[in-house]
Amino acid sequence: MIILVGGEKGGSGKSCLAQNIAVFLTREAQASVIMVDCDPQRMHIRLDPSA
Ligand SMILES: Nc1ncnc2c1ncn2[C@@H]1O[C@H](COP(=O)(O)OP(=O)(O)OP(=O)(O)O)[C@@H](O)[C@H]1O
Ligand SMILES: [Mg+2]
């Protein structure tokens, strides 16, 4: 199953809602969940995990 939380407006709560859905599915449905945040500003791509 793929669930898309989308919208062009910034700061409208997309990531927050997606995270809550992921936690709910993990805890209540024992689902294996992968979250992918496709931020149009590509902020996550620029993050350096080693920094
Ligand atoms: N239901 C809610 N009630 C109160 N605050 C909320 C709610 N949902 C999100 N927020 C707050 O609003 C802010 C923006 O939320 P979030 O980062 O999820 O938005 P976003 O749509 O993913 O933003 P972006 O477009 O920058 O990725 C955060 O500070 C978050 O804690
Ligand atoms: Mg976001």
Strands, helices and their partners?
Layout: H1 14-28, H2 43-46
The chain binds adenosine-5'-triphosphate (ATP) and magnesium ion.
What this model shows, in words?
Helices cover 37% and strands 0% of the residues. It contains two helices and no strands. It has helices spanning 14-28, 43-46. The radius of gyration is 13 Å and the shape is globular. Bound molecules: adenosine-5'-triphosphate and magnesium ion (MG). The site of magnesium ion has 4 residues, from helix 1.
Q: What is the number of helices?
A: 2
The total strand number stands at 0
Compute the average pLDDT. 84
Ions, cofactors and other bound molecules: adenosine-5'-triphosphate, magnesium ion
Topology pattern, helix = H, strand = E: HH
Which strand-content bin applies to the residues? under 5%
Alpha-carbon Rg, integer: 13 Å
**Largest sheet features:** none
Helical percent range? 25-40%
**What structural class do the secondary elements suggest?**
mainly alpha
Low-confidence stretches: none
